[in-house]
User: Fold these one by one.
Assistant:
Number 1:
Amino acid sequence: MSLQLHERYSLKPFNTFGIDAQARLFTEVSSDDQVREALALAAQRGLPVLVLGGGSNLLLTRDVEALVLRMGSRGLRILGEEGDQVLVEAEAGEPWHPFVQWTLAQGLAGLENLSLIPGTVGAAPMQNIGAYGVEIKDVFAGLTALDRQTGALREFNLADCAFAYRDSLFKQQAGRWLILRVRFALRRTAQLHLEYGPVRQRLQAQGIDSPTPSDVSRAICAIRSEKLPDPAELGNAGSFFKNPLVPVALAERLRAEHADLVSYAAGEGQVKLAAGWLIERAGWKGFRDGDAGVHRLQALVLVNYGDASGAQLLQLAQRIQADVAARFSVHLEIEPNVI
Ligand code: EPU
């Protein structure tokens, strides 16, 4: 099938912040051949390429003078089983949460803690998505990507991907790899991760003593729905900042002043701080300037009440960064890709 091209096309429906920026050229691709065709077309027209999945980790601060290539490839399959382990593969354009539900419906455990995360399968490895004690690196089996420099396909195993907290080789080498399909090693017998307090509490409150992966998924959906705004109702890109790693000495100094500082041991003389706590303490939770704001229930999430521009949201983020740095001597790193 040949490509459907759209000139000067609004990206509003294609980014969860709901920013009305325009793409110079837009196309949705559904196969490897279409990906190659789109890349060739961009080269021919001298346009850079911006690859979009669900647009859920993206802040557009201006029109995009590029070919915006939206990954729309679909397909879910079980590749094989060995003992308890089941290898599944999903095409990059598959929406993440329905994929998680599909694995649960097949009786497969491993992705339940990652329920209800917006975005697509192909974007998930970019920032090693994680929630409630699990990151995709914990269940990752491999992926196939296209090298945009050479046009060759390459297989990546776990070690190749350099996964770290909200980070990967693909994020480090932004613009080089186009992820086509991802494989996960799931299990017939669940090894649940319930160490995150609120998940355990919710299951207990429901009287569930020996939860199934689907029970955990439902509990996590409920927790997320309470705290995190639904992008369909209120534009946002999830956590706007990473939880910062700081030296133990700084965390101790801060704790001397703020007994309720939220922190997690991170090894090697470092401590991870809850950015949401820092931002809330600095007084920004629920703040609103025009249509750009800080969510009233989760200070880590910036929201678009309607017509905020990306530039306005970025300016708000920078004000928060400066204020948190001044008050706590902590630098907050922005999490989504800022274009
Ligand atoms: N907190 C506050 N005020 C706030 C928000 C949080 O004091 O406004 C405190 C909470 O009380 C809690 C701590 O900060 O003690 C942690 O909060 P929460 O459990 O909500 O998690 P988070 O650290 O804010 C991270 C991820 C989320 C993920 C949750 C659960 C990052 C940047 N964010 O948020 O991921 O869902 O943990 O695992 O690591 C995302 O990346 O988009 C995302 C939503």
Number 2:
Amino acid sequence: MLIHSASQVLTLAGGPRRGDALGELGIIEDGAVLLREGRIVAVGPSAKLLAAHPDEPRHDARGRAVMPAFVDAHSHPVWAGDRAAEFELRQQGKSYLEVLAAGGGILSTVRATRAATAEQLRAETEARLQRMFAHGSATIEAKSGYGLSLESELRLLEVLLALDEQGPWELAITFLGAHAIPAEFKDRAGDYAQELARNWLPELKSWWASHAAGRPLPFFDVFCETGAFDLAQTRLMLEAAKNHGFPLKVHADEFDNLGGTALAIELGAASVDHLVAISDDEIAALAASDTVGVALPATPFGLAETHYAPARKIIAAGGLLAVGGDLNPGTAWCESLQFTLALACRQLKLTQAEAIAATTINAAAAIGAAGRLGSLEPGKQADLLILDVADYRQLGYRFGTNLVHTVYKKGAPYPVHSWQHEPSSKPV
Ligand code: NIG
Ligand code: FE
């Protein structure tokens, strides 16, 4: 398939980006992309590729912009129930951590999730993944974390494995048994951390070998936060997981700085996520490492808070910065990474180009897949978006409407808009 006559092809060629290079999109004007068997074979000017491949089936982009599909580097898509009543409480003045300490928050979603049937969980999760995919997220990092017993966490992994198998999206699965302290372990977070580190990890590993045949181990993540796991408990679990060979992720600095970011970097985590309360020393350490810092601006937005990750400082220091969606029922029920991108432009002060790199090639790095996803280069997987606009700068600038026209996943097209009008802007 030859996709041609794209106003702009954003190639994002050249790997994950730091510093000033974050905003370099590698744009080919009047561009084309040649796809075969789910991979990208060539990228270049339309005239050149049309002449070189006259017999190839064609998809005329009709002046729309083409870019790599989004990689959503952080989501919690598998849960039952909702927290609309809790949102109302927060609007009346209760804080997120107060609600959690009172047995609500994550724990209320845990109760609803444990009570749900496997069919219900699968159907609700599938609907969320469909909405994410239709907004351009063709690869989605997806965490368990609303079970909080080994058995119920494995049930959530089973739902995620089945939905990954089904597609068309692709999931990067993460085990987040250390998301909160379940009611059975109230005031015994240390016991829960030890139980998880000593007993669950070996069982998880052998369960994975028999249920996810051939797949590399999932990511292992911990919520290091006041009211969740302290630094010592986080270290205990992360070190045990690392010893078992799990790649690591950490939720750190969402509200309070407990040292989780420094620990994530020390242990070589693939990413450390949230970073609202990151210190200047940790920004320097992040910049000197290959750990990706994932900012999640939909979370403070969803909580109506005013503090966001210091993204400009991270970029200036030379850190690898990605932006993720953090879909979850408590802080950010948002399935549109395009909306998150608009927040990144306003609250993290990124340009549209920087926000696009942070949700494609750098987000791919956050899930260890930058060699395969996140850019349009020969040999890479054919995951791309045909936007409904001609100038990429409409992304981030506009918000609340879906600007994706067609998602290509592994070379197969999934139309989002079935009508055929001209794109709504011309590049300048
Ligand atoms: O990333 N911080 C922990 N996890 C989610 C919130 C989960 C919830 O409130 O249900 C987050 O914001
Ligand atoms: Fe999260």
Number 3:
Amino acid sequence: MKLLVIGGGGREHAIIKKLKENPAVEVIYALPGNGGMAADAICVPEIGAKEIDKQVKFAVAHSIDYAVVAPDDPLALGAVDALTAAGVPCFGPNKAAAIIEASKAFSKDLMKKYRIPTAQYETFTDMDAALRYLDASPAPIVVKADGLALGKGVVVAQTTQEAKAAVRSMMEDKVFGASGTKVVIEEFLTGPEVSVLSFTDGETVVPMVSSMDHKRAGDGDTGANTGGMGTVAPNPFYTPAIAQECMETIFKPTIAAMKAEGRPFKGCLYFGLMLTPSGPKVIEYNCRFGDPETQVVLPLLKSDLLTVMHATTDGSLAQTPVEFSTGSACCVVLASKGYPAKYDKGFPITMTGEAAEHAYVAGAALHDGVLVTSGGRVLGVTAVSDTLPAAITEAYRLAEGVHFENKYFRTDIGKRALSAQKEG
Ligand code: AMP
Ligand code: GLY
């Protein structure tokens, strides 16, 4: 089998490494991929994740048997529709279903209509109306750009002043371009956050093992928001009773709602949840695997990933076993010092064989055969063990086997999860 994976980060590297476990897989092409995954896939840096016409031509020319569209942008642009029309079966939602992530106003209205628990909210296309609403609503309050904004379109404002500044920058200064034409202003919720990725074929939903992201740059959840500095799975705050409740109040109703709207969702639907004092609520939906959640979830998957992915495409998920191991995983992201603001790149990366085996590379490039840093988040190392403390210790040991100038990482990935385990 010849496979194609669209995307080029650590998430895609984790997907590729897992797909390779199937002996029927002969070759995997990554569009564009990155220099750090060259041992696992044939990278095609000339074709970017958003270049759908080129992707389709490539897939047809290389007789691709199955394609995986991993990032949000190509999904929202209709990559799955285009590949499917060209006769290439794909993993991922079509454009009509990807709107669940591409428009926050759509997803909020969906939840309201189908009574899926989420924060109270109002949607605005008129800036003055948004500003007046903020005068009448107490802070803290949350301002979200409607469209895709590289995960940066959310401002949790501690004061009305800050919320108004966020509205102005989105609607007047257009810092997120067209994504800020509409904004959603919503109630501030509290409680532990849980990421639940799920496989779905549009009818059946199978949640994967839960996980916990660490979005802030600094230890103790301080500093700027990032694309994720590390993850652990499972998430100890997510008890079996809560999982059962989420299945009945959130997961099944969401899949049924999308079907009822004529937008059946196939692929991986990501539920970003907050366990509030009044029960689990949806913070966000993503129409794809999370990054860096995938780097801890897929290493715990015991079933063959390609078989499960096929089942989401052909509608046979109910008859397909999806099993996870009972262990724990921890991923520590090694970033360039200064990320997510300014950082230098181009530094050579060296790794022990053991670290390389457990590495999912995101921001690295091959320059004359030498792997060098090329992004803010350079790579993640993932360890799997019987217990969470052992997985954390092992991930940090692996991280010591990776060297590059200006290497920066959080030292407390999994700490909050461990405290929850102790309380429980
Ligand atoms: P998102 O990009 O939608 O995941 O939002 C980024 C982060 O903002 C989330 O992971 C939460 O920590 C926070 N957040 C989003 N919505 C809310 C809310 N309604 N209340 C409190 N925090 C929120
Ligand atoms: N880790 C959050 C995301 O993938 O959006």
Number 4:
Amino acid sequence: MSIQLEKIKELIQLREKARLGGGERRIESQHSKGKFTARERLAMLLDEGSFEEFDMFVEHRCHNFGMEKTKFLGDGVVTGYGTIEGRLIYVYAQDFTVSGGSLSEMHAKKICKVMDQAMKMGAPVIGINDSGGARIQEGINALAGYAEIFQRNILASGVVPQISGIFGPCAGGAVYSPALTDFIVMTQGTSYMFLTGPKVVKTVTGEDVTQENLGGASVHSAKSGVAQFSVDTEETGINTIRQLISFIPQNNLEEAPVIENDDPIDRLDDALNDIIPDSANRPYDMYEVIGSIIDKGEFLEVHSDYAKNIIVGFARFNGQSVGIVANQPKFLAGVLDINASRKAARFVRFCDAFNIPLVTLVDVPGFLPGTGQEYGGVIVHGAKLLYAYGEATVPKITVTLRKSYGGAHIVMSCKQLRGDVNYAWPSAEIAVMGADGAVEVLYGREIAKEETPEKKAEVYAEKRNEYNKLFANPYEAARYGFIDDVIEPRNTRFRIIRALQQTQTKKLQNPAKKHDNLPL
Ligand code: HXC
């Protein structure tokens, strides 16, 4: 064999060794926990044969605790690039079979390299986390590595989309990299995220809690809101990431891909003409409206288990990606509260950062009253959503279906927040507050003076009718041009598509500033 062929053989052997990560035994152990390896995950995530690996031969440089004797090619993270539906994507996947996927100085350098490359090329970064955290033997070098990644997450935010899959442990300060990214997908039963684990919790607070109850997928998708997606298997998680990528652009200077659409743009849905119940206090299901108006009913909901009184997610109109924000009358009457405001504000800001038009469907009775909300700072959290809509420069189309009262009316993308097209259904009620509250404030004392309960009820009904006649309709707002048109519900899809076509060339810039000071 020639010297050159010998060298090629050596390369092939080294590659095979690197691909084995921590070795067969640890790969089996990974599989026995119901988890895939880093390489298997990337193979599922990227288009077949598209993965190009970087830094396969990187090793750590640590000599503490005899570490020079335990080196693995790649040092616990697989990095590189590939494509999803033909579009360039940078990836890293932590390899739990090598020192528990723990993050060393060199491991961090590999992640930073793909992040830097993604920024130069203007392409999304997807990171799959499965790691015991900072490589203990490397001490401060591991911490420095995390800090380098965090800094890059911050600078990349709003420039290229960043998506985190949490498919195993993600603990301690390590959680802050995913937290700085745009979307977190967690697997049920096999992943967890927390700043301090159950043992530390027990020592400090005396509380007994399992890993799952402290930071499992259901905790973060339903209670804390840290994770946008909770999935039952890694395959579903990876499909969710691929689907998410299909709705979003490569970077902040590009538009989301437009896909071919065979759903007729003028498709009418008569059911929408009959969906609003006669009684203002009876709910209906906003998912039915969303499903009816978007292309083929294909809706990728974000944060589906969190703050269910507001629905956010991606859909398409005539093939064009939009972000949908909709109050859900079926849950807490669609009221805005702290969690709903935070959830929707984050989504609106993502869409605005990445040139995705916003379609807002309004049926909101107001903000949730009470000490719980006020003590929790609903003023500042509600202001986040107000701010997000007000600063957004993407096309903003709003349709008011029923209630739109008070501060919540303003927050939900009203005309004065630079709404481009504001439509209302004939059932819309746009007012300072609902009839009951208004009559109480304006005529409460007068009604109390009436002598009999029958007379009280009679005057109350009279005033209520008067108020409703004046305000429980869209025409009062339309008279002032705050509503551009009152539309037939069954025609909503077509009218939104026309509005999106009209606003395609929108150009709007906010005043120059170092950065904003949104109410955090
Ligand atoms: C070095 C580590 C490691 C770490 C795991 N390993 N975590 N090596 N540094 N942080 C190694 C183990 O020694 C073992 O090596 C292999 O990974 C698999 O670990 P096991 O414990 O056998 O696996 P398992 O039973 O599944 O438990 C996984 C685990 C546990 C729950 C993650 O390993 C664990 O508690 N690790 C420590 C977690 C931690 O406290 N990390 C520091 C957090 S603080 P072998 O050779 O046997 O395969 C932090 C600060 C970041 O990260 C700050 C950023 C700002």
